[in-house]
Amino acid sequence: MGRPRTPIGTFGELEFTTLENGKVQARTRYRDWDGKLRRVQATARTQRSAEFALKAKLAERSLVQPTFTELTPDSRFVDLVEYWLHDLDLEGHLASSTRNTYERNMRTLVLPAFEELTLREIGVARCDSFIKHLAKQSYNRARQARVVLRLAFSLAVRHEILPRNPMDHVSRLRRPPSTPTALTSVEVNAVRAAIRYWERGQSASGPKPDGQLGLLVEVMLGTSARIGETLAIRRRDVDVTSSPPTIRLAGTVVGGRNSPFVRQDHPKTNRSVRTVALPSFCAAAVRRRLVALEDRSLDSLLFCNRDGGPLSPHNVRRQLRSAMDLAGIEGVTPHMIRRTVATAVNEQATVDLAAELLGHTDPRITIRHYIKRNEMVNPATADLLDNVFGPRDSDD
């Protein structure tokens, strides 16, 4: 067996030499990050000062990292951000929309508070205070800031720029109580009427409607699809000749922030790939849209712009807001429509079926975020209480 090696970062015995000028030189052997032993030395007026100077030199030397980054704990936080974004691009496993969202959240939520600080100055207390103050403004903004801060500092730890992640000990965020909201059947019909009114050109401003918004909403109501999934439906994904007619949801539209919107060939999660049987109102809307399509190729999009490319989800949301504002209806969004579908399926069947339709891996997500709570207690309780407490006929 060979002699056990000194651990990396360990130095040997200190040696002292008095030089001709009267100063003292302290030296030792130090095992560097590459595993090689090197002689390190420092000179001062006294032995104690020389020893102190040598140990300070070794402490600084321990910050030299075995990676290709030049970042150190004294680097600015903004430099870590650029390094982190570059690393995300190198990994390449994130959807472009997710990557852009991370960058947006980092630049708009976090950098204004941290860009002038060094990494060494950003500890648990500072991060904890920042997240708590942000949470007072918005829980979602605090949650998004927490995610990107943790990811950036995790990279710094993995690449041995920092010894620990300050976000590991930040207080847990408490989600404020909220109840999912959903539209009733009466409200759904009011939304339909508002869109028809808007599509007849009754709006005072903006481009003339092309008739796609109403059909798009019918497809979302009939499939529970996310807005990006709906805009990614191709002719090949539709089968209106089968019984029942079906749509395969197998992609989404991504882009924005200085990049064009494109169809991505996979949706949000693997479970989100699904084939949905269409109710008659949805099938009728799909048939109308297929007739209107000029491009007869299988890969043509069901909903598209003038050039046949994907519609912008932002523009669709804006058009829906315009139609709803014209009718004085508030709070209607594509996500609200998705919650409406989930609530209806849960009330008529089961939460498991609602989760399957929405493409969720866990029904708890469906319950927490998508299903409107039914406040009506089972009417059977009235009969039960009548049987127990109802007055009885007596001879008295």
UniProtKB/TrEMBL annotation:
Residues in Core-binding (CB) domain copies: 75-157
Annotated Tyr recombinase domain residues: 178-383
Domain of life: Bacteria
Keywords: DNA integration, DNA recombination, DNA-binding
GO molecular function: DNA binding
Keyword Repeat attached: no
InterPro entries named in the record: CB, DNA_brk_join_enz, Integrase-like_cat_sf, Integrase_catalytic, Integrase_recombinase_N, Integrase_SAM-like_N, Tyrosine_recombinase_XerCD
Keyword Plastid found: no
GO biological process: one example: DNA recombination
Range of residues in the leader sequence: none
PANTHER family in alphabetical order: INTA PROTEIN, PHAGE INTEGRASE-RELATED
Name listed for the protein in its UniProt record: Integrase
Source organism of the structure: Euzebya pacifica
